[in-house]
Automatic annotation (TrEMBL):
It holds the Pfam family Vsr. Belongs to the Vsr family. One of its GO terms (molecular function) is endonuclease activity. This is Very short patch repair endonuclease.
Length: 149
């Protein structure tokens, strides 16, 4: 990464105030999951990767849910690239995308199901897909446990 810095103190201040957790899309999905009886953990550290967390984790089922912001994570529909200080932003945003891929690969290698959603996706659709994945994992775990006994 280059030594370039944000283009101004104002940009730096705005970036530091950007919500990292409890964003509106994340809260909406969590409410729907909770209302449907699902229990989960929040901001769980990724095993073996310091400073990385799973937004919504179903630890027993090993399902990791990430709700990614369109700007920060490179949504193919909505991502934009700032013109001011373009090289710094390119490196910053490309680094985020690479880190997301590395995290997903690591969790998959550890036996987790990784679900990534964009902030613009309908919370109802996201919650439904998460619930389906969790139920599938729990059924698979029960079948596996019966086979071991």
């Amino acid at each position: 990464m280059s030594t370039a810095k944000p283009s101004s103190p104002g940009v730096s201040a705005r970036m530091s105030r950007q919500a990292r957790r409890d964003t509106a899309p994340e809260v909406a999905v969590r409410r729907l999951l909770h209302a449907s009886g699902h229990r989960y953990r929040l901001n769980v550290r990724v095993p073996g990767m310091s400073r990385r967390t799973i937004d919504i984790a179903f630890t027993r089922a090993k399902v990791a849910v990430f709700l990614d912001g369109c700007f920060w994570h490179g949504c193919p529909e909505h991502a934009t690239r700032p013109k001011a200080n373009a090289e710094w932003w390119r490196q910053k945003l490309d680094g985020n995308i690479a880190r997301d891929a590395e995290t997903s690969e690591h969790l998959t290698d550890e036996g987790w199901i990784v679900l990534r959603f964009w902030e613009h996706e309908a919370p109802e659709s996201v919650a439904e897909r998460v619930a389906t994945a969790v139920a599938r994992q729990r059924r698979a775990g029960r079948r596996q446990n019966k086979g071991e006994q």
